[in-house]
Design goal:
The structure is a single chain. By secondary structure, this protein is an alpha+beta fold. The chain is built from four helices and eleven strands; from the N terminus they run βββββαβββαααβββ. Strands 1-6-7-8 form a four-stranded antiparallel sheet, with helices on one face.
Length: about 180
């Protein structure tokens, strides 16, 4: 499996909790559909990857994923992880022991992706750095204890294709202009 963008941070989406109904602490390689899936049960990230004949469907440990993204382990600028039989994974030319036969089942992500695929809505292209900067400026990215106590969440309102995107956090308001196409 090869991922062309080493800056993807799936580790930001996986759950940190140990006691969860499904395996939301790891990353799933879906070989049939050429994708990596990470979820914490509330959000999900799906990345398109290149697979090869040697790859097998399985679970990739988050720590293995992070090691594979290190500059010294990149394969021509790409993240490269190969799940092998006998609980082995290969990162570049290095084989490491990897327990990818977890007892917990990975969450049922396919029905969610089907809903997303069929979702008709307004498409707006934004500069991600501007959106993140705006969200931070509104105080929405805070320690989890503060977020729980103050219900710090964001609301995003999109009126149209070339209209400003309005982001609110409590009484704080921000606006991001769509990227010119």
């Amino acid at each position: 499996m090869k991922l062309s963008n080493p800056y993807c941070k799936l580790e930001k989406v996986v759950s940190k909790k140990q006691n969860s109904r499904f395996n939301t602490r790891q990353i799933k390689l879906d070989k049939e559909n050429n994708r990596l899936i990470a979820t914490n049960g509330r959000s999900m990230a799906v990345l398109k990857v290149e697979t090869n004949d040697n790859d097998i469907d399985g679970i990739i440990d988050v720590d293995t994923y992070k090691v594979a993204k290190r500059k010294e382990n990149l394969d021509n600028g790409k993240v490269s992880i190969e799940l092998l039989e006998d609980n082995l994974a290969k990162i570049g030319k290095r084989k490491i022991e990897e327990n990818f036969q977890y007892k917990e089942e990975f969450p049922p992500y396919k029905p969610v992706l089907e809903k997303v695929k069929d979702n008709e809505g307004i498409e707006v292209t934004l500069n991600p750095r501007l959106l993140i900067g705006l969200i931070e400026s509104l105080g929405a990215i805070a320690p989890s204890s503060y977020q729980k106590e103050h219900n710090a969440s964001i609301n995003i309102k999109i009126s149209g294709h070339n209209e400003p995107v309005v982001v609110t956090c409590g009484e704080n308001i921000g606006v991001v202009m769509p990227k010119a196409r």
